[in-house]
Design a protein that fits this description.
The chain has about 850 residues and is mainly alpha-helical. It contains 40 helices and seven strands.
Length: about 850
């Protein structure tokens, strides 16, 4: 026999996986505490943990560790059923009869005062009897400790309740793999194992039942069939207790122990992915006083379900404790809800509660009603927790064809998704309702349709899809005006201005902002006033009117601070940081970006965080601090990748190109510069999204590289970068691992320095030899002809004067000047002239 074995403990027939820390902690508890109850849902592993703890204590209490399995003890059998079973385990034959002596006294005499451990397993159906016996034994046996397992506490004096959690993700995977190899020794784990483990909430019984299916199914097939998990998870060890042979049986056992009202509440809670007490009161109780679940009993019933390990207590979010059901219990309860004929009514009440809260919270989010920043920040965190409920409400609305309710939820929550960088998913939800609306030929009221289109436009602008933003905002104006909704009309106009600014239509942007300003003069419109001024400030930056930009952004900052909206203030601070950088005041620029970070981090505003960090990275580049630049740019690029906003990724890739040039990776610099341009133009136009001077800054980086590598090679690398997938370019920027592909051909020149090998994404034909008059250059930088024109602009020549100098038409000159402004990111000839002087000085320094 194994030295740690004891005939009074159940044998461990397979590997014990995970829970090592739990075993150690429970051992320490039992050194000082005398009553510990392991509580948890069916199949969570209470018995196995108790046995492992008991076995670990054998050395300290040799021969005095007893295990009493109560699972098959009948409630309605002979009196003192628990004492009878414990007596049988201890070999005390006369305890049940006992004469005039209570059975507990007989057991206490048998146990005595020496150290001992009694494990009472599966107490949930015998809680009163277990509690009475434990109280008596602990009183009369000073050396005894009791370790119980139950789906609810015993509630004895001095009891410590240990909630057995699901397995940690890594341990859940280990358990699945271990049990799978027991039935199929050649089993190889794949990524689907983690998917199954997550879906089964790390519940050991469910994992073991799923692993048993690898005899006939792949893990991928198991994952696909978990929607019908109770049929799938029905194979088990025939030696296991009946309640543990299938997942359904394990939950049935708990369900049968509930009272009628507890069963009603459990099935109605299945509509939530997580909830608070207030939400349960809105959705689950009966308004009719004679209903199954009156409001006054809900708290007690919810507490009872927590005690019985069917409801899990989660974290506190936005000042309220949250609860959840393990997914298997939720599916079981949903089946019960359907069988009771309550699915439609309960899910509709759930959706209506989500809608009412969303519209109320939307008013606070955009300052239509007063709120502190702390209150707004709490709401942003709340909707992280509410994500599953919102999706469920939208799915139910779509299934029922409740397009108005679905669009109202999408509209109300737009600001939360934009700030969080989740615009793409919620734009897709909105599109599903709008597309269904078009398919059905339905006509919603203007007060629903107009704001929904305006919200969809804002989501598009949030992901920098400006063509879509302009289309949806334009379509929103008529119904918003028809319904008299000045707030959403102004919002649509500001979005139109953002789209016009991004594509260089500055006069149009100004006109739209004038209209928005006129509409947002009244109370409750402070957000639109502040955001409109910030938008105009960014417009002035694009125009090169730096003084006007500064005044507008400072005004926007004051408005946002007056309403205590720190995300809005951060938006203005980022603009002011860019302004200071353009003026060359790097210290002020860094201060502005730094000031924006705390509020953005507090609400997890990933897009704005990415932009602020990119600004900090560029400042570090200007200061020659390559290591600091890499740190900030890496954070920025990772955030942009997470949000999927290509334009933000493009801007940061361009900064990485400059960084790589500083670090000596000239080929990588050109490749990333090309990838940045490819990603930028993929968002809707070559000019879209260019900040002032970005093209000029890129030209400053590429010009010395052309002189070192030669224009043909730079052009080839640039073209390769243009077609490199954005994800590959990001991976190279972050890790230094270049996208796979062939090495470009390279002209051999004696003076050229040796360069590290850098494979590329896909073959590119070798470029034709350049003509002397027009060397091959990257499309985003200046051609030889455009460089000539830049030099003449710097000399102060008009278009006609340039035409005469170069013997071309004034119209051709005008076209070239427009291209130069677009490529360099400038708005005036004066900016081009100033840049030309600086650029010439830089070349002389080189």
């Amino acid at each position: 026999m194994h030295p740690d074995a004891d005939p009074r403990l159940p044998a461990e027939t397979d590997t014990f996986v995970g829970r090592d820390r739990d075993v150690a902690d429970l051992r320490r508890l039992l050194e000082s505490l005398r009553a510990v109850t392991l509580c948890g849902a069916g199949g969570i592993g209470k018995t196995r943990l108790a046995v492992r703890v008991a076995r670990s204590l054998l050395e300290a209490r040799p021969g005095r560790v007893w295990f009493a399995d109560l699972s098959d003890v009948a409630v309605d059998g002979p009196p003192h059923p628990v004492a009878r079973r414990v007596a049988a385990v201890l070999g005390v034959a006369d305890a049940p009869a006992g004469g005039d002596r209570p059975p507990a006294e007989v057991l206490a005499d048998a146990i005595g005062s020496r150290p001992a451990l009694l494990v009472l397993d599966n107490c949930e159906h015998l809680v009163p009897d277990c509690a009475a016996l434990v109280e008596a034994l602990l009183r009369d046996c000073p050396g005894l400790a009791v370790l119980a397992t139950s789906r609810e506490p015993l509630r004895v004096t001095g009891e410590t309740v240990w909630r057995v959690p699901p397995l940690e993700p890594a341990d859940a995977v280990r358990l699945f793999v271990d049990r799978a190899r027991a039935v199929r020794p050649d089993f190889t784990a794949t990524g689907a194992v983690s998917e199954v483990s997550r879906a089964l909430d790390g519940v050991p019984l469910a994992l073991e039942l799923a692993a048993a299916r690898v005899r006939v199914l792949s893990v991928e097939q198991i994952a696909q069939r978990l929607g019908d998990r109770f049929r799938l998870l029905s194979a088990a060890d025939r030696n296991a207790p009946p309640r543990q042979r299938t997942l359904r049986a394990a939950i049935d056992w708990s369900h049968e122990l509930l009272g009628p009202a507890e069963r009603v509440l459990l099935r109605r809670l299945s509509v939530f992915s997580g909830w608070t007490l207030a939400q349960a009161e809105l959705v689950c109780v009966d308004e009719d006083p004679g209903g199954d679940l009156p409001p006054e009993v809900l708290l007690d019933l919810l507490t009872a379900l927590v005690d019985k390990s069917l409801v899990t207590v989660g974290d506190e979010v936005a000042g309220a404790t949250r609860f959840r059901l393990l997914d298997s219990i939720r599916q079981y309860a949903a089946e019960r809800l359907d069988a009771a004929g309550e699915t439609e009514s309960t899910r509709t009440r759930h959706r209506d509660a989500i809608l009412e809260a969303a519209e109320r919270h939307a008013e606070a989010a955009l300052a239509e009603i007063p709120a502190t920043w702390a209150e707004r920040a709490a709401l942003f965190r709340l909707y992280d927790a509410e994500l599953g409920n919102v999706r469920a409400a939208l799915g139910w609305s779509l299934e029922r064809g409740d397009l108005e309710e679905g669009l109202r939820i999408c509209t109300a929550l737009r600001s939360y998704w934009i700030v969080r960088g989740r615009s793409a998913e919620w734009a897709a939800w909105t599109d599903r309702f709008l597309d269904r609306l078009a398919e059905d030929g339905a006509r919603l009221p203007a007060f629903v349709r107009g704001p929904a289109l305006a919200a969809r436009a804002q989501l598009a602008a949030g992901s920098r899809d400006f063509p879509r933003a302009a289309d949806q905002a334009a379509a929103a104006l008529e119904p918003c005006r028809e319904s008299g909704d000045d707030f959403m009309t102004a919002a649509a106009l500001i979005t139109l201005a953002e789209a016009a600014t991004a594509t260089g239509r500055f006069d149009e942007a100004d006109a739209r902002l004038d209209e928005a300003e006129a509409l947002s003069a009244g109370p409750g419109q402070e957000w639109n006033r502040g955001y409109g001024r910030s938008t105009r400030g960014h417009l002035r930056l694009r125009e090169g009117r730096l003084r006007d930009a500064g005044e507008l952004l400072e005004s926007a900052l004051r408005v946002m601070r007056d309403i205590d909206h720190r995300w809005g203030a951060a938006h203005a601070l980022i603009g002011l940081g860019r302004l200071a950088a353009l003026r060359g005041d790097l210290a002020a620029a860094r201060d502005r970006f730094d000031a924006a970070l705390p509020a953005l981090a507090e609400v997890g505003a990933r897009p704005e965080l990415a932009r602020a960090l990119a600004g900090i990275g560029r400042i570090a580049l200007d200061r020659g601090e390559a290591a600091a630049a890499r740190g900030s740019l890496t954070e920025s690029l990772e955030l942009s990748r997470a949000t999927g906003i290509r334009l933000d990724a493009a801007r940061t890739l361009a900064a990485f190109a400059e960084l790589l040039a500083c670090e000596g990776d000239l080929r990588g610099a050109v490749l990333l510069a090309g990838a940045a341009e490819g990603a930028r133009t993929g968002t809707g136009g070559a000019r879209e999204g260019r900040s002032p001077g970005t093209g000029a800054r890129l030209e400053r980086v590429l010009e010395p590289i052309r002189r070192k590598l030669g224009e043909p090679l730079v052009a080839q690398l640039w073209g390769q970068g243009r077609v490199t997938p954005v994800d590959d370019a990001i991976a190279y920027a972050l890790s230094g691992s270049a996208p796979a592909g062939p090495e470009p051909s390279e002209p051999s020149t004696p003076s050229e320095p040796s360069m590290p090998s850098m494979p590329l994404a896909a073959p590119v034909p070798a470029p034709a030899p350049p003509s002397p008059a027009e060397p091959v250059t990257p499309p985003s930088t200046l051609t030889a002809r455009e460089r000539e024109i830049v030099a003449l602009v710097a000399r102060g020549l008009s278009n006609r004067g340039i035409a005469e100098e170069l013997v071309i038409s004034p119209a051709t000159v005008a076209r070239h000047v427009t291209n130069i402004l677009t490529k360099l990111g400038f708005a005036s000839r004066a900016q081009v002239a100033a840049w030309a002087v600086d650029h010439a000085n830089g070349e002389r320094e080189d």
